[in-house]
Amino acid sequence: MSLATDPDIELLDLPNELLAHIVSDTMPLGFESFVLSCKRLYAIAQERKLTEQHNSLIHAYQHVDFAGQELDWSKEGTLPRLQCSLHLLLEIACQPVIARYIDTAFLLPVSPTEEAMQNTLDADILDIGTCDAALRRFLPIRKSLKPPADIKPTSRLQTVAHGASSRADVVWASSWRIALISLMTNVSKLAIPHQWLHPSTSHSTALLDALATEAARPAGGALSNITEVEIWGLTDDPTPFQQLNIFLALPRIRRLWCGQATGTENPERYWPVEWCCPASASQLECLEFFWCVISHFELKKMLARTPKLRRFRMHKAAVVSEMQTWNVGWVVQALQDYCGGTLTEITISIECHADVITGYMCDFIGFKVLERLELDTRCFCAPPRAAAADAPDASAVSLPPRLADMLPATIKTVRLLTGTHDSQTFLLNGLFSRWHIDDCESGTQRRVLPSLQMVDVLRGSVTVGGVPVDEGQDEEAWAAARRVIEAAGCSYSDVPHASPEWVEKSRAGLLDYWCVVREIEADA
Predict the structure, then answer these.
(1) What is the Cα–Cα distance from 98 to 104, expressed in whole angstroms?
(2) Minimum mean pLDDT among 165-174, 391-400, 473-482, 500-509: which range?
(3) In this predicted structure, what is the pLDDT of residue 266?
(4) Are 342 and 333 in contact (CB under 8 A)?
(5) Which of 66, 130, 407, 472 has fewest C-beta within 10 Å?
């Protein structure tokens, strides 16, 4: 029996030379450096020297690759070498002193496409990644390995797979992840692609079963310390959202992030947005969707499970009904129904044309403790333009109320996200037009929004209503907005935007927004 697969041998106690010899005979090239790094980490931990030596070792082995090269399945001995690799990996990972360095589990494939999930085997490896002091990470490095159809799983692999199907593709594609899940006693962060939340595939079924089994154990089992979960690559399919209950049930869940790529299959190009949550699912404080679509029904179910939600953020996302239509008012109403007494921060930015949005129903008065509101101005319809002489009276058109009348007195910060100039100017007018009201009891005036401290305006590229305009027209529109601000007694500072670099980036569509910040002066 190979030393690498003998459970009675303490691998980390072997001399470096012997261990290197075992690795060279039984493992893919490139794996030995990881084994030696684990051995060295073990020795360092035993000596309680986790400072300079620890950091230098981490930096030296942060780019270790499991395979080192593509495995040639036609050559004799490839399968045993890969089996030994997995066995040794498990032996090392099970060492308590080594396991303490495992903190984050990234189970993302090289490519988040369904084809890649079905046709490639992602070989995983522990990589003690870049860190500060004692920060711990668990980071699989992936290789595209296609196992032959006649591979027969070993009894040990079947045991590791927690009862997964005996089909070779299931064992080889899933046993790695399921085996590693069983080692996650110290893992606090889990990131997985949305494809694995579809129980229709054998890969995801095995993984979901393992996750659900562990989550259902007392105190969460091997997943008991997971506080952060990220779901990547979500689309308009609501199926993955139905599996989120697995993670919401974890006893120490702190973050739940659902996101989508921005036109690229490279996971490094994903745009993560950070936020924090409290110590259990029933007290989840922050929920964020980024570049994804969720059904109205699923959103309400999720909000019903998070009655203590304090932050809700929806970036370039959409909530749709069964008819594939949506209204920002639905989102606001659902938030108010379930979390109106707890939400302190709401962000809603959208990724669709203003013509398909109706926003008259957006009323935030019902939020009792709301302090920060970031809202895409396209959530509101701009006021109708002056009617022609032969047109119906414009005054007959129903207008949304003034923005100041739609916000609770607790509001501290208002940010108007990218939208048309006329809609932003309209909202600014609505914010400042009733800046003070008469207080009959005291005979003085008081501010409508006494807690308001800051107003931001985020502007997109040089467009008005989505139509490019020249800089003169653009500046004229913003001059009108600034006059409104000045009339309200507020100061502001403009970010220069007429530089050649700004114009070039704007025309190329590379500049997302620029910001004009005003700090509202305190009343005399």
Answers:
(1) 14
(2) 165-174
(3) 36
(4) no
(5) 472
Q: What is the C-alpha to C-alpha distance for residues 379 and 351, in angstroms, rounded to an integer?
A: 11
- For strands 372-376 and 413-417, give the pairing: parallel
Closest CA to 292 of 317, 327, 270, 314: 317
CA distance 493 to 487: 15
Distance separating alpha carbons of residues 448 and 407, to the nearest angstrom? 9
In sequence order, which residues have a C-beta less than 8 Å from that of residue 83 and are 6 or more positions away?
Answer: 5, 154, 157
The CA–CA distances, whole Å, from 128 to 85, 270, 384 equal: 17, 22, 60
Tens-digit pLDDT profile for residues 390-421: 434 433 334 455 677 778 888 887 777 655 55
- Beta strand residue intervals within 372-481, DSSP E: 372-376, 413-417, 436-439, 444-447, 454-459, 463-464, 467-468
**Is it the case that residue 449 has pLDDT exceeding 70?**
yes
> What pLDDT does 102 receive?
47
| Separation CA 299–CA 293 (nearest Å) | 10
d(CA 284, CA 224) in angstroms, rounded, equals: 16
Q: Per-residue pLDDT tens for 153-197? A: 332 222 222 222 233 333 333 444 554 555 566 667 776 766 667
Instruction: Give me the helices (H) in 383-470, please.
Output: 421-432
Q: What are 173's two structure tokens? A: 């594609």
Q: Are strands 104-106 and 189-193 parallel, antiparallel or unpaired?
A: parallel
- Comparing C-alpha atoms, which of 262, 155, 235, 173 is closest to residue 210? 173
Burial of 35 (0-12, 13-18, 19+ CB in 10 A): buried
Taking the C-alpha atoms of residue 440 and residue 242, their distance in angstroms, rounded to an integer, is 53
Tokens matching residue 500:
């050649």
Strand 311-315 relative to strand 286-290: parallel, antiparallel, unpaired?
parallel
pLDDT at residue number 367:
92
Query: Residue 486's pLDDT is what?
Result: 61
Among 351, 142, 181, residue whose Cα is nearest residue 266: 142
**What is the chain's percent helix, strand, coil content, to nearest 5?**
40, 15, 45
Each residue of 287-337: pLDDT tens digit? Answer: 877 766 677 777 887 788 788 888 888 776 666 665 555 667 778 888 999
Q: Is-contact 482 492, C-beta < 8 A?
A: yes
For tokens 């049930």, name the residue.
249
pLDDT value at position 395?
Answer: 38
Instruction: Compare 388 and 254 and report the one with higher pLDDT.
Output: 254
Cα-trace Rg, the chain: 28
The DSSP symbol for 168 reads H
pLDDT winner (highest mean) among 65-74, 178-187, 341-350, 450-459: 341-350
In sequence order, which residues have a C-beta less than 8 Å from that of residue 423 and are 6 or more positions away?
Answer: 354, 377, 378, 380, 381, 382
